Amino acid sequence: MLMAMQAGSSLAIKCPLEDTVLEGGPRRVMLDLDGGGDDAWALVMLLSNEEQYNICVQAVTCSHGNARVSDVLVNVLRILDSLDRLDVPVYVGASEPLITPAPNRNISHYFWGNNGFGDVEFDRFFAVDSLDSLHAVEAMNELFEKITLLAVGPLTNVALLYKMYPETKHKIGDLYILGGNRHGVGNTALAAEFNFFRDPEAAHIVLNNSPMIVHVFPWETVLLQTLTTRWRFETFYQTTNPAVAILNQVEDVVYAQEEIWTPCDMYVAAIFLNSSIPQSVKTYRAEVELTGRVTRGMMAILHHVKDNSKHNVAVIDEIDLQEVQRMLVGLKDVKCN
C-alpha cells in the first residue's frame, strides 16, 4: 500500500521559477486532467520527454470528469509511481461541475469505466482518504508565472481559478485545451464534446475570460486521426515502460470492441512538446451553448466575426500524424528517472 500523502500536502516547487531560469531554461507546464487512459498517455508523453524537449512538469491538477476526483488522483499516482516520479506535485481540485447536478452518466457515456482506468483490479493499492493537500485552484494561483497550462478534462478548475483569482489568468503563459467541437459533432449522444458537456459554464467562463488566444484541439480533429487499435496493441504489446504496461491492462478492457484508438489528450501534450505537429490552425470567435436542449456544451464558431482582435480560440484542424506516431513509438521503451 502506498499512502497518497506523497502527492503533496503542501505547496511543492519542483521546477525552477521563471525569474531564476537563465535563457534557454526549461519550459514549465502544468497538466490539468480528469484521469482517463488518454489523460495518462498525456502525462507519460510529457514526463518521458522532459529532457529531449527541455520542459519541466510543474504539477498535475485533478478534476472530475472521466471518474470521481478521488479515482483520478489514484490513477495519476499509479502512473507516477510506475515511473518513479512521485516527485511531481499532484493537487486535487473540483469534484463536480459549477452547476449541479452533473449530466447523467448514461448520457455522458463513461468510456473509461467507473474509475477512469477500465475498472481493472491492480495489485498495488493507493490510500487517499488521509490526503491533506492544497486545493488545485490554490496551487494554480501560487504556482502560475508564465507556465503553460494543458487542460484536458472539464474546465472547472480553470474557471474557478479565473473567478477566485482573476489576476492570475494573466500569468498563464499559454493555454491548450482538449475539448469542444467545431462542426457540431459530439461524443456524448448529444451535440457536444465530453469535456465541455461535463461543465458547459466552466468552458464558457474560460473561453470568454482568457486574456490569451486559447489553443483548442476539438473532437472533430481527434476523429481525423486514423490510429487503429491493431497498430496500438502491436506497437506496445511488448514494452519495458512500466506506465505503458499499466495502460496495456486498461486498454485491453476499454478497447476490446473498438477498431480506432483515440488517445485524445495525448495529442495536446505532443503539440505542446513539438511545435511542428500542428499543420492547420485558424483563429475564430467561439462561444459555448448553455441553454440548448440538444446543443448544451457545444462550442459554436461565429464565422461572421472577422475582426481578429475579437477572436478567442485557435482551432487545430490538422496535425502531422506520422510525427505523433514517431513520438508515441518512442514511449515504448522509456523509463523516466
UniProtKB/TrEMBL annotation:
Q: Where is the Inosine/uridine-preferring nucleoside hydrolase domain?
A: 29-324
**Domain of life the protein comes from:** Eukaryota
**Family matches, as InterPro entries:** Inosine/uridine_hydrolase_dom, IUN_hydrolase, Ribo_hydro-like
Q: Which GO terms describe its molecular function?
A: hydrolase activity, hydrolyzing N-glycosyl compounds
One Pfam family of this chain: IU_nuc_hydro
Gene3D superfamilies xrefs:
Ribonucleoside hydrolase-like (3.90.245.10)
Family per record: Belongs to the IUNH family.
Q: What is this protein called?
A: Inosine/uridine-preferring nucleoside hydrolase domain-containing protein
